[in-house]
């Protein structure tokens, strides 16, 4: 017979392991800024999305969930923020988790336009921490309607510096780094996210890999997950457009660049931020099979990456 005191000792010994908490990235969207289907697109590749709401895909956004400290963060404020906040509510409900910050990469609509929902016309939020680089901070502070969010203290701007880490609770670090891109209103950054056990890099928008001073292959080798720009699958994807003027790295170019990497290194690569024309949005496409057969991953809504 096991005595009650021994039972109590066993429970105390086993409880911490049973109650172990996680830090993880939760993918809230994988499409390019306009989502899928995109406004004004009524071609066959978009019709599936208009006809079936379950096929619709939100613009690229990540949540960072810290179960131990009951905190949650967002990366990007997309036009689909209402839906994405609702999805986030399912896994990290308000009241149980504090929304402790939002990190912005740059001033293109799919990455910051969702900030309007924090305003008095909708949520009437109070001092949501918004982490942004200097030009992005200036843009939000001096242009309407964003400056009203600042003046009414719906958001509180938190300055970022290139290559300088933001220390979050639980030893989590978020480090912005500049990348080349169309910078009409702000600079553009990617983020390195370091958790207790693993790390990730998030680069949803960048010009060609060759335009960047860093070697993307070495960046990939330095982390456990690499969520990389996959806006277009290949040249010719946009009819009647000179795609040489659109400096995103095609998925085909990226696969060629990464061809000599090891299987383990390839498995770290997760393609994300796909235009509505990109066949990778369809997991039944030949292109999707080609990518996964080569050992790469394609991001999907609801994907979890443990940190």
Helix/strand layout:
Layout: H1 4-18, E1 23-29, H2 44-51, E2 61-66, E3 71-75, H3 81-91, E4 98-103, H4 109-112, E5 128-132, H5 134-142, H6 146-151, E6 155-159, E7 166-167, E8 173-178, E9 189-194, E10 199-203, H7 216-221, E11 225-229, H8 251-257, H9 263-268, E12 269-272, H10 286-293, E13 297-298, E14 304-306
Parallel strand pairs: 3-4, 4-5, 5-6, 10-11, 11-12, 12-13
Antiparallel strand pairs: 1-2, 1-14, 2-3, 7-8, 8-9, 9-10
Description:
By secondary structure, the protein is α/β, with parallel strands linked by helices. The chain has one domain: 4-Layer Sandwich (Metallo-beta-lactamase, Chain A), CATH 3.60.15. 26% of the residues lie in helices and 22% in strands. It has 10 helices and 14 strands. The protein has helices at 4-18, 44-51, 81-91, 109-112, 134-142, 146-151, 216-221, 251-257, 263-268, 286-293; strands at 23-29, 61-66, 71-75, 98-103, 128-132, 155-159, 166-167, 173-178, 189-194, 199-203, 225-229, 269-272, 297-298, 304-306. The strands form 2 sheets. A 7-stranded mixed β-sheet has the order 6-5-4-3-2-1-14. A hairpin with a 4-residue loop joins strand 9 (189-194) and strand 10. It is globular, with a radius of gyration of 21 Å.
């Amino acid at each position: 017979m096991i005595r009650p005191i021994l039972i109590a000792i066993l429970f105390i010994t086993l409880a911490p392991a049973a109650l172990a908490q996680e830090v993880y990235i939760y993918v809230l969207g994988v499409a390019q800024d306009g989502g899928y289907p995109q406004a004004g697109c009524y071609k066959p590749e978009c019709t599936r999305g208009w006809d079936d709401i379950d096929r619709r895909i939100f613009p690229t956004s990540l949540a960072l969930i810290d179960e131990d400290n009951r905190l949650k963060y967002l990366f990007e404020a997309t036009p689909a923020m209402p839906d994405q906040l609702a999805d986030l509510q399912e896994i990290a409900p308000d009241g149980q988790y504090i929304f402790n910050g939002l990190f912005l990469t740059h001033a293109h609509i799919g990455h910051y336009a969702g900030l309007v929902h924090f305003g008095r016309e909708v949520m009437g939020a109070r001092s949501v921490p918004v982490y942004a680089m200097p030009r992005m901070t200036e843009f939000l502070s001096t242009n309407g309607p964003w400056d009203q969010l600042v003046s009414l203290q719906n958001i509180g701007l938190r300055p970022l510096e290139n290559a300088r880490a933001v220390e979050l609770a639980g030893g989590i670090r978020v480090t912005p780094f500049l990348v080349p891109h169309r910078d009409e209103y702000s600079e553009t950054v990617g983020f390195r996210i370091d958790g207790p056990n693993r790390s990730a890099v998030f680069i949803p928008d960048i010009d060609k890999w060759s335009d960047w001073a860093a070697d993307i292959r070495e960046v990939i080798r330095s982390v456990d997950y690499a969520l990389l720009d996959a806006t277009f699958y290949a040249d010719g994807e946009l009819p009647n457009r000179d795609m040489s003027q659109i400096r995103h790295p095609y998925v085909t170019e990226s696969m060629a660049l990464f061809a000599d990497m090891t299987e383990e290194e390839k498995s770290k690569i997760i393609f994300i931020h796909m235009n509505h024309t990109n066949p990778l949005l369809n997991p039944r496409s030949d292109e999707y099979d080609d990518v996964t057969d080569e050992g790469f991953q394609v991001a999907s809504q609801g994907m979890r990456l443990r940190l």
